[in-house]
Specification:
The protein is of the alpha/beta class. Helix content is 27%, strand content 23%. The strands form four sheets. Strands 11-10-9-8-7-6-5-12 form an eight-stranded parallel beta sheet. A seven-stranded antiparallel beta sheet has the order 2-1-21-18-17-16-4. Helix 8 links the parallel strand 9 and strand 10. The chain is globular, with a radius of gyration of 24 Å.
Length: 496
């Protein structure tokens, strides 16, 4: 064979190899007890089944911006149980751009949340409107070291925050919880405050909560409202001094959860007044680059969200960069987006389960991610990445985490939920475009199609049923068709 002929054969072989490679996907499969198995699959010219999702490749339902997690005190305590080498390995897996989960941002609470060690705020002196005794000692020994540990593995991490409860002295019940229980010392005689001035005839059993709070638990007095806005700014300032860039705030975590742990109900008008007349102006004056989002909404009552955004104090004010939703809030995202399409939408907290750490919890999370991203949420924030033993809070609630620590053996296990998250986060990186989706949190065969920043298809699909299911997707002019095993999760990544 002549030299010219050899070159032509080599060129043809290279072109054939490239064509074959372009039609091949790497497949990652997880099932209960059998995680992250790798294989190969090729696309075809024709398909036997009807496509569940069909895309051309140039759609853009949503451009994804990143994955995050909450930094909580009990998570830091769980990490401290482990030997240093294991601790660093897990932080690398979660936060490194080359790790498993590839977290890009973190959330933290202003004062105690339900996964704090106990009650606290940075303002413990009643009547200290000037915040002269603002005290960050607790944060400096727990949350900030936790964040610094994560930053070692991803220096570009950014952070956002919200309170679970204001300082107790700023509330009408003068305490951190909303309702009394055996897990707190709140005077049970004050439980009546929750529904004082509310109308029990207006209860709606198809909405959460079925009976709304009758008034704001935050004291609606200008001195208190101004001091609270200043409280947010002090947090941003002090965290910034400690190398923690706060880029976003939300006024309240779950204003519709009436809790025995830290919480604070707000009425739509009270929330509108605080955000429009106090928090937004304070941020604009002191931290104009910090975004103000409205959230976090954990209610499926559209009228509550709409009530804030349409309140008279909001007229003519463009103060919110976006809206944040979690739990029941996911149900009203389409309705809110229909009326307020100009906002960015983000998911703000994953659903925590009940300390089972099992495959069913993983399947639930897999569906919840599909639900929020399919509704156009451009960010997703998880709750506890790591917890000890049964994942129990100081208020008696057992919850799941992605990593479970055995405090006696000083060992850590990656839970099934860890892999459910990894099936999305490992390849759906910031800048990926969602092209099409099918499913939601209850669909037995949810599926999503993305293009990553390199222009490659990434498909995430699952089968929550007890039988095999056929998966057919149309990707441009080709078909990805395969069988999904019962109770399995899959990620397909287009080859180079």
């Amino acid at each position: 064979m002549t030299r010219t002929a050899k070159k032509l054969v080599a060129a043809a072989f290279a072109m054939l190899s490239a064509a074959v490679s372009a039609q091949t996907f790497t497949r990652y499969t997880s099932a209960d007890g059998d995680f992250w198995k790798e294989s190969r699959i090729s696309v075809t010219e024709k398909a036997e089944g009807q496509p569940l999702v069909s895309v051309n490749g140039d759609e853009s339902v949503m451009i994804f911006r990143g994955w995050g997690t909450c930094f909580n005190e009990l998570g830091w305590d769980a990490l401290q149980v482990l030997p240093e080498e294991k601790r660093e390995e897990l932080l690398e897996r979660a936060f490194s751009p080359d790790g498993d989960l590839k977290y890009t941002h973190g959330r933290f609470s202003l004062g105690a949340n339900d996964y704090a060690r106990g009650w606290y705020s940075a303002s413990m002196v009643a009547g200290d409107f000037e915040l002269r005794y603002f005290d960050m000692t607790r944060d400096l020994t727990t949350l900030i070291p936790y964040m610094h540990a994560a930053q070692r593995h991803n220096p570009d991490l950014w952070f956002w925050c919200s309170p679970w409860s204001p300082p107790a002295w700023m509330k009408i019940n003068q305490d951190y919880p909303v309702l009394s229980s055996r897990y707190n010392r709140m005077d049970r005689r004050l439980d009546y405050l929750l529904h004082r001035n509310s109308d029990p005839k207006a209860r709606r059993h198809d909405r959460f909560p079925d009976w709304l709070a009758g008034e704001d638990f935050f004291i609606q007095d200008p001195r208190y409202l101004k001091a609270y806005a200043d409280y947010f700014c002090r947090y941003i300032e002090e965290y910034g001094k400690n190398g923690i860039p706060v880029k976003r705030v939300m006024y309240q975590n779950e204003a519709y959860s009436y809790t025995p742990y830290p919480g604070c109900p707000w009425t739509p008008h009270g929330a509108a007044v605080f955000n429009a007349e106090y928090l937004a102006p304070a941020l604009k004056a002191k931290f104009p680059d910090v975004e103000l989002f409205l959230g976090t909404f954990n209610t499926n009552r559209f009228e509550e969200v709409d009530g804030i955004l349409s309140d008279k104090v909001m007229m003519g004010k463009d103060i919110f960069a976006g809206l944040g939703f979690q739990w029941e809030g996911s149900q009203i995202i389409p309705e809110v987006r229909n009326k307020y399409p100009h906002f960015r939408f983000v998911q703000t907290e994953s659903e925590c389960g009940s300390g089972t750490f099992d495959w069913l919890a993983a399947e639930h999370t897999f569906g919840v991610i599909n639900d929020y991203l399919g509704k156009g949420c451009e960010e997703y924030t998880f709750w506890n990445v790591i917890l000890c033993d049964h994942g129990e809070s100081a208020w008696g609630w057992r919850q799941n985490a992605l990593i479970r620590v055995d405090s006696r053996a000083k060992t850590a296990t990656l839970t099934p939920e860890y892999y459910a998250v990894m099936h999305y986060s490992h390849f759906v990186t910031a800048g990926s475009r969602l092209l099409g989706a099918f499913g939601g949190r209850t669909e037995e065969t949810p599926a999503m199609v993305f293009k990553n920043p390199a222009g490659k298809y990434v498909v995430v699909a699952g089968n929550r049923s007890n039988t095999e299911r056929r998966l057919t997707l149309k990707l441009g002019g080709k078909y990805l068709e395969t069988t999904l095993a019962p109770h399995s999760m899959q990620t397909f990544v287009e080859g180079d």
